[in-house]
Amino acid sequence: MKLHISPVTTEVLHELATYFVATGQQAIAAHSRFTVALSGGSSPKKLYELLASEAFKSQLDWTKVYFFFGDERNVPHTDPQSNYLMAKTALFEPLQIGSSQTFPVDTSLPPVQAAVAYTKDINQHFGNDTARFDLVLLGLGDNSHTASLFPHTPVLHDESVGAKEVYVEELQADRITLTAPLINQAQAIAFLVFGKDKAEAVKHILEDPRNIEEYPAQLIAPASGELHWFLDAAAASKLEQK
pLDDT tens-digit profile of 6-18? Predict the structure, then answer.
């Protein structure tokens, strides 16, 4: 695991965007495509906008990048809460990413069926190879959740490699999420976390004893891939070891 701690959020975003591009270039050189699972929520929007900016958009062959989602809310793709809509607006449309390169969760299906269909989409993309994303981007909630792996939900103990539906009691809402075993197969995983409101959760995940029921992001521990945490000083402020 490697920590990248920058003084301010803008520097965190720039460092992660640089890492994203470098990882993409390596993947395309190795096997002619770059397959990413995107994070949803508010934090990564700034990253996606930066990747689509003049500073970064020419650094990667975007025609060879394929986008999946780490999780999705059970809402239509036109809903403001949709992770797909956020990525479409911030990243896909500005970069003119073709629909054949994007794999949204089919939220027109009931959650159980949507998860089964998404698992099928993932497996079809990788074909006979192991479903191994080149990069999984993750965020961290102040309750220590990541993707839609929320505290005290059954999916935390799911050993399947794919997508799974989960009902989040605290939100009174259904979600579809990649399972921890699938995330942990990735070649590289990068957390993006900034703001002092995330400092307690960061400390729980990185320094507290293992307790996945309370701190689900502790599940993320790739067996052979890279694990990176991109933090600003505020998010890292409660860590004892930096």
Answer: 999 999 999 999 9
